[in-house]
Structure formats: structure tokens, C-alpha cells
Amino acid sequence: MIVALLSAKSSGVTTTALALALASPRATVLAECDPSGGTVRAGYLQGAATAAVGLHRLATAERDGSLPEVFERHLVALDADGYRLLLPGLTDPAQAPSLAGTWEPLHRLLRVMEEDGYDVLVDAGRAVVESSHRLSSLYSPAPLLRLADLVLLVVRASAPAVAAAAPVVRVLREDLDRHGTGAGALGLVLIEEVGFKASEVAAALGVPVVATLPDDPETADALGSGGRVRGRFALAPLIRASRSAHEQITIAATRRRVQIAPRPTLEAPRV
Q1: Sign of the C-alpha dihedral, residues 60, 66, 68, 69?
Q2: What DSSP character marks residue 149?
Q3: What is the mean pLDDT of residues 180-209?
Q4: What is the pLDDT of residues 14-60, one digit of tens each?
Q5: How far is CA 157 from CA 89, 167, 194, in A?
Q6: Domains of the chain
Q7: CB neighbours of residue 29 within 10 Å
Q8: Nearest-5° angle of CA 248, CA 103, CA 89?
Q9: How many CB atoms sit inside 10 A of residue 42's CB?
Q10: 3-class secondary structure, 213
Q11: What's the Cα-to-Cα distance from 55 to each of 36, 87, 120, rounded to whole Å?
Q12: Alpha carbon 221 to its chain's center
């Protein structure tokens, strides 16, 4: 599956995508495609991956025709056994416009990774909406959203976050209907807070909640900085919940593929 995650405002989309990748029971590629720049390289990996690799290098490779050959060289390990991989993000937001012609070739390569047995998570950062109620042309990874199996908006379960998400939901639904596989690809990942139920947020936004995650500041800080979590990392609330969320997301992505798959046609009998 290829799943794109984004947010309407600062809602921890990178932390969510990273937690899902690390908790996944399957081989996983996390593609850090936030046009405002990547943070996993400097944060969780603590600078272990150099700027010689990453998303910002792919535009040049696409222009000289070497992208398929060099793509896997730009993936770095997120864990000790290389079971989970990262495509590090931009080192400077000014690099985003150069990728205009790279997103669709990148999607094709991510599909190849999927065919090789990897789940693919795309951190698409914060959606940028124009005053004309469309995705901004400055929001460069839009092609990845339109081609993904699922598009998941990360939303905190609070009144301000839901209010900020509402106009973005409307824009995403229209964009996916016009240019993607349809608004049915859109769902929510809800960061729980006291006082709001998932059913209430889903009803307010008109979008199903595909998965919920706890508000776990300690683990979120560790994922952001590469620090330690007290006790076993695998038992941290965010990581345990991410394992369940991965299963729910996989079910939703599979269901979505079945819904949009072309139905086989019956050949007329030959006389």
C-alpha cells in the first residue's frame, strides 16, 4: 500500500508517520516529502544520514535520466536491520520547486518498492490552500496524494484543530474527485484528547476516522530528537497504538483498492 499523510496545521504528521513506520510489522519505506523540509535526518537519526542523499537529489537524477538507477542509494535505514527505510526530506524549502517534474516518477518508483514487499508511507507535511479554495501550486507533493491508496489527514481531537481541518477537508475532497481516485480515499488519523470522541470528529468533518493514536508527548519528543524513552520503546503508548493503527490503515487501503479496481468484463461467447 501507499499511504500519504498530511495535516491542516501543526498536528504532528511527521511524528505520526515515523511512529507508524517504526511500529509496522512489514518492511516499510517512509518518504519524507514535506515541501517545508525534512526533520527526521537531523532529529530521529541525529544527523547520521548526510546531505549527499535524499529527496533534494532526485530532481537532478530525473533530469539526467538516472533516477531509476540511483533511487535506492538515497534510502537510509531507520532501524538496525534495515527493515525500515527512509527517503530523507529536503534540506531547504527553496528546493521544492525543482521537484515539479519528479513527483510522478517518484510515485512509480515507490510502487516498485511496494511490489517488492514494502509498505510506503508518504509524509506530505502541511497542506497549503489558496484563497480560491484549491490546493496551492506551491504545495508541490499534491501528485503523490492523488496517486495514493489512502490520504490521511492527521488531526488532533480539539475544537481549534477540527475547525482548522474543515476547509482543508473540503479542498482535499474536491481535489481528489477532480484529479485523484476520488474523495473516498480521504480519511483521518486522530490524535486523541480528552473530551472529544472519534465519532464526533468524523461527523464534524464528514470523513471517517481510520485510526486513532494517543497523545504521548514523551515518545513524540523522542521520535523528534532521537532521544530515549523510559522503559522499552516497543511498549511506549504511541508505538503500541501505532501497531494497531497500521492494521486498521492496511484494511482501509485494501478495501479502497477493491472499490476502485476495474471490474472484469465477460467476453461474449464465440459462435
Answers
A1: negative
A2: S
A3: 94
A4: 999 999 999 999 999 999 999 999 999 999 998 888 888 999 999 99
A5: 28, 16, 8
A6: 2-258 (3.40.50.300)
A7: 23
A8: 75
A9: 18
A10: strand
A11: 12, 6, 15
A12: 19
